Amino acid sequence: MKLSQLQHLIAVAEAGTVRQAAKVLFLSQSSVTKSIHQLEESLGVELFHRGSHGVTPTAAGRALIARAKVVEAELREARNDIDSIVGAGTGELRISISPTVSVGLAPQAVIEFKRSRPRVSVQIQEGVYPDVLQSVRTGDVDFAICLMPERPRDEGLSCELLLPDRVTPAVRASHPLASSRKKLMDLVNADWVIYRLGRSGRDVFEQTFLASGLKPPSSTIDCASFAATLTLVERGDYITLVPKRLFADKAAARWGIVPLAMESPMPAWNIAVFYRAEHELSPVCLAFLHELRAAATDILTRQSG
What we know:
alpha/beta; Arc Repressor Mutant, subunit A; D-Maltodextrin-Binding Protein, domain 2; 3 domains; five-stranded mixed beta sheet; three-stranded antiparallel beta sheet; 10 helices; 12 strands
């Protein structure tokens, strides 16, 4: 089993076809096909189901892909360690950020990190709790910064609280409901737009109502784009759920939306960072974690001052 074969395996699984994987790898299709066949022969199993519309991993393929991603992540960390030892100042950092917390905290940490380590390659992608945790576990990303419930599920990952937060209903500034304090039960029959990337958004939405003994609203739009969600709220008579810190960071002002004044506290969904438990972080990752903690402390200090 060769490292290149594992890299080809991951590429084919992510691309869905050998042809597309070959383009990503800058190799010929025949080279990638041969590499996968040799890997299958060495293991004595088929790693992909092959069809007219592409390939999908078999059970054995999924198991090997998960391990291969961990190997790839460890090699990336090893390169980061070596770069730090020789003083190259290079390396690679992969971060997943929930769109609902992508203002304020995360950008501040990334900007400060790049000032001190300008040659480090930083890759940022979107991800939400709990879906993104698998990417942390396999090493696809080094950190996941996201909203989490007050009592997160035990995922075998290190979880560090950065900022306390709560979800809040939000509407456009001229919405009829924006003029007075509301109870959650007053919003059951309203029209809602729910930001959801994976299952997370609807989970937050439904749990918010169920925890108060209420049936979740039925008049809803599910939207996989956070920007589109805010635009719908800005231009229509919709309500959405967003982190309350969105307003503390003044980002919501760009969209013309405001939080509804609620008579009772809304559920806690705090901002946290997840990374692999019992995993020795590279100097690059430790440096970013330091900036992330510093940014959180700075935000809390400014808001309490």
